[in-house]
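Model: You mentioned two targets. I'll fold them one after the other.
Researcher: Yes, keep them separate.
Model: Target one:
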Amino acid sequence: MEESILIGKDKFKISEDETARRELRVVKVHDDAIQIQEEVHGIIALVGASSSVNIKKEELKNLIKVAKEKFGWTDICE
């Protein structure tokens, strides 16, 4: 698998003593498939049966740019 590309990051306060760090990354897993990875550091994650990724507008713009420029997906629109 190729190295992931950072498309977004931020920090948010979860208590008076702790700040969590979030990074959103994308990696090409196949010619027609990508994987979005959301990493959150600084809090205990609960295990569940489903998974979701929160993506901000600027992160989506970055994702489209990476898909076009790095992965060669020229047939997608902005």
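Model: Target two:
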Amino acid sequence: MKVLTANRLADGEAVWYANGGWAETIDNADVADDKAAEDRLEAIGAAAYANNEVVDVNLIDVTVVSGVVEPVRLREKIRAAGPTNRNDLGKQARPEAARAA
């Protein structure tokens, strides 16, 4: 399974394609579970890149555990949460992350 990720050009924020737009969390990212879905996400990413919305567009491997989308690679886990040495910074420090924990 894969999801589409990028960095928003306006501020560099790591984002994931979800529900027709770019979300700041991976939680609701559109998950591709076959080649056709991957191709669709790649086309969306290419168009967003061409429109100067995002950069560093990539499909990344994920798993879905109990309905929660989780990146497979450590790099992507860090991009999804924030710094590993400071839990008071990054996405994990946001109020909605505290409610989910």
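Researcher: Noted. Anything on target two?
Model: Residues 2-100 form one domain.
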